[in-house]
Amino acid sequence: MIIAVSGKGGTGKTVVASLLVRSLAERDTYDILAIDSDPDSNLPEALGVEVERTIGEIREELLEKRDSLPPGVSWRSRLEYEAMRALVETEGFDLLSMGRPEGPGCYCAANHVLREIIDTLAKNYDYVIIDTEAGLEHLSRRTTQNVDTMLVVTDTSKRGITTAARIRELAEELQVKFRDIYLVINRATEDTEQKLQEYAREIGLEVIGIVPEDENVRRYDYEGRPLIELPADTPAFSAVREIAEKIAR
Amino acid sequence: MGEEIPVDVGLIYEGERIRKSSMYVDLAGPKSKGAELLRVVPPEEVEDGRVEVIGPDVDEMEEGGRYPLGIYIKVAGEKLEEDLEGVFERKLHYFCNYIQGFMHLNSRDIIWCRISKDAAKKGLKLYHIGKVLVNLYKTEFDVIEKIQVTFYTDEKAVDEHIARARKVYEKRDARAAALKDEDVEVFYSCLLCQSFAPTHVCAITPSRSGGCGAVTWFEGRAAVKVDPSGPIQEIPKGEVLDPLKGEFSGINEYVREKSNGSIERVYLHSIFDYPHTSCGCFEAIAFYIPEVDGIGIVHRDFHGVTPFGIPFSTMAGQVGGGVQSQGFLGISIAYLRSPKFLQADGGWHRIVWMPSQLKERVRDAIPQEMYDKIATETDAQDLETLREWLKSRQHPVVERLAEEEKPEEEAKKEEAQPVAALPELAIPAQGVPVAGAPTEITIIFKNAKIYAEKVIIRRKE
Questions:
Q1: pLDDT in tens, B60-119
Q2: Interface touch B172/A72, C-beta < 8 Å
Q3: What are phi and psi of B437, to 5 degrees?
Q4: Residue B331 in 3-state DSSP?
Q5: pLDDT surpasses 90 at B129
Q6: Inter-chain contact A77–B176, Cβ cutoff 8 Å?
Q7: B64 touches chain A (CB under 8 A)
Q8: Residue to substitute from B37, B90, B219, B298, interface A, most A β-carbons within 10 A
Q9: With an 8 Å Cβ cutoff, are A112 and B17 in contact?
Q10: CB count, 10 Å around CB of A105?
Q11: Do B296 and B287 meet the contact criterion of CB atoms below 8 Å apart?
Q12: How many inter-chain contacts (A to B, CB under 8 Å) are there?
């Protein structure tokens, strides 16, 4: 199952994505792959892992030296090897970081091959969670293909909700196929909750969960501690756990 | 097979990755070492069906451990030739991947394998993998009459095996590098760039890799095997219409069909008359400089200007998009190393200018006598300085230049005018991979004189 988490920058998309990874990893029965496809996000930090090489770096490296690779050697299988090497493997989950978007060269062939490689890799997991930028560029270029569930994260601002609506339109325009799309409201307080539910109805998005304002999240963010290590009973985590249960059914 | 294999073997296990948390042992890979090698040997050197493991087998390995791995396969058969070694060796990756609980990545001396906990628990050993390989090779290839498999996990034995393998790879590469268009019957096409260059059909032959440099003839051959209905397809070579220019009836027919009739003929190794179309992703551009009757080359990483006074990016905008542009050709850097590099136009003897960085990068491909005669951005920045510089170095184009210059210098200049104005053509077709053809075209002429009997501009059907 492929779950994409998107939203306007700063809405807490990475909070939701990382806690989702933890919720699913906790069950111990699933193989989980997290994909960081937003160059501006900090999913690896939130998950408490270090990325040595990104897919983008591998692509650049191989494009650089491809004319000196021996003729009988397959570029594709070398990419496959390097992609496996770029995978950060931990007890509970694996992480792949897409890295920076491409430079001025041509990436058609490289991306085509990479897409197949990542699709093949993703098939080895029960859950793939993609932290993706609001522009959905990686999804539209289909470095990762079809999505089962798209979670759009918004904060309590009207702008956040508008962006959420826009993301849905964009996904449809770009022909990113998804089965379900839900809204996740982050940092909600009691007085904003109702109004936001109304907004969501207006734009026709179902709210799958509401993540409350959480002092612990703020503190961890501030101290630069991995969000995945949040206390098990902190309200934000409980909320994401419920979302995970609804999605994973 | 006679012997019990404790795990399943089948196509469905292709693409299986073994996660660290479910892995029993890690073999070779980036943190260890390894190599695989397949050799065709005389029949008396093969003990058919034998599998040997030099060093500990899986049951003697520590759980969670990392070990080096060498795989050595010897095959024999009356019809076998050394040339088949590479083809058979690549098959090893696919065969290994049929085995449940065994992961195998890449080839040669950059391999990475894992055995899963589940498979180890069921009793899977390298020995069994060897038995599977013996069986699969003999089933798939009738010509293999005898086969023997040896695994090395003992460090010293692996080191020796790697050294032996590298010597063989080197010899094999030298042979492959010498492979020419005339040595094969099938070429490949790549249509990946048609999303933004709808009439671009890339023809890939041993002597010409795709403009982007990513698709070589070998890569094409492998891609077709993986995905026969994908964007890379076989092109039957057909008849050789012109061996020097590189014109083949098979390519012409294929390109005509796949470009919807807009491209009729293609010369692979010339920049004139029917040059290959250019996509937009090419790594470099070869461009004809009429003022010196020579050819310049500029690559994507060079940010300065060519002797035409324009940089790569501007030129790329005019060349790309899937059209045949007289005197301009998008190429890969690897093509500069091809023995057929623009052979119809004089090859390296016609090259007059290239950025110093590129010149250094392909130094080994440039004929020695030409190296000091090709100008770079430090030697010539415009057509006038280029001309003088070439004269001072006695570049082969100079002789011809001198002859032509005398009788009709005036006429020559007139003629040259439109070509010099060409760089002002600005077609926004490059770079942005949007579907379909560009919808807006801007044509700007400055100081141009154009003579034509007839000009027809028509909406494309």
A1: 999 999 999 999 999 999 988 787 787 788 889 989 999 999 999 988 999 999 999 999
A2: yes
A3: -80, 160
A4: strand
A5: yes
A6: no
A7: no
A8: B219
A9: no
A10: 17
A11: yes
A12: 106
Q: Which residues contact A10 (CB under 8 A, 6 or more apart)?
A: A155
Query: Does A63 have pLDDT greater than 80?
Result: no
Q: How far is CA B236 from the centre of its chain?
A: 18
Give the number of residues written for chain B.
461
Query: Does A89 sit within 8 Å of B173, measured CB to CB?
Result: no
* Nearest CA-CA distance, residue A166 and chain B, Å: 21
Q: Which of residues 274-293 of B touch A (CB under 8 A)?
A: 279-283
For range B190-217, the mean pLDDT? 84
Q: Is the pLDDT of residue B389 over 90?
A: yes
CA distance B354 to chain A (A): 18
Q: How many CA atoms lie within 13 A of B411 on its CB side?
A: 5
Which of A71, A80, A113 is nearest residue B218 as measured by Cβ atoms?
A: A71
A66 and B433 within 8 Å at the Cβ level: the answer is no
CATH number, span A2-248: 3.40.50.300
In angstroms, the CA A9 to CA A6 distance is 9
Q: Could you tell me if the ipTM is greater than 0.85?
A: no
Share of chain A above pLDDT 90, in %: 39
Domain segments of chain B as ranges: 11-177, 181-424
- Of B241, B216, B239, B222, give the one whose Cα is nearest residue B333: B216
State the average pLDDT for chain A.
Answer: 85
Scanning every residue of chain B, which has its alpha carbon at the shortest distance from the alpha carbon of A120?
B15
The highest-level CATH class for domain B11-177 is alpha beta
Task: Say which residue the tokens 């249509």 belong to.
Answer: B191
CA A111 to CA A39: how far, in whole Å? 17
pLDDT average, residue stretch A65-93:
82
Q: What string of H, E and C letters represents the secondary structure of chain A?
A: CEEEEEECCCCCHHHHHHHHHHHHHHCCCCCEEEEEECCCCCHHHHHCCCCCCCHHHHHHHHHHHHHHCCCCCCHHHHHHHHHHHHCEECCCCEEEECCCCCCCCCCHHHHHHHHHHHHHHHCCCCEEEEEECCCCHHHHCCCCCCEEEEEEEECCCHHHHHHHHHHHHHHHHCCCCEEEEEEEEEEECHHHHHHHHHHHHHHCCEEEEEEECCHHHHHHHHHCCCHHHCCCCCHHHHHHHHHHHHHHC
Instruction: Give the pLDDT confidence of B255-286 residue by residue, as tens digits.
Output: 999 988 889 999 999 999 999 998 877 889 99
| A232 shares contact with chain B (CB less than 8 Å) | no
Domain ranges for chain A, please list them. Answer: 2-248
Instruction: Select from B81, B77, B72 the least CA-distant residue to B50.
Output: B72
**B181-424 adopts what CATH topology?**
3.40.1470
When mean pLDDT is compared over B116-120, B193-197, B281-285, B296-300, the highest value belongs to B116-120
φ, ψ of residue B219 in degrees (nearest 5): -65, -40
Give the integer Cα–Cα distance in Å for A127 and A34.
Answer: 8
- Largest Cα–Cα distance in chain B? 88
Length of chain A measured in residues: 249
Taking the CA of residue B177 and the nearest CA in chain A, the distance in Å comes to 6
* CA B446, chain centre distance (Å): 39
The string of DSSP codes covering B272-309 is SSSBPP--S--SEEEEEETTTTEEEEEETT--SB-TTS
Share of chain B above pLDDT 70, in %: 89
Q: Rounded CA gap, A151 and A168, in Å?
A: 10
Among A29, A58, A106, A174, most B C-beta atoms within 10 A, so best to mutate, is A106
How many CB atoms neighbour CB B93 within 10 A?
Answer: 18
pLDDT of residue B287: 95
Nearest to B64 by CA among B112, B19, B95, B111: B19
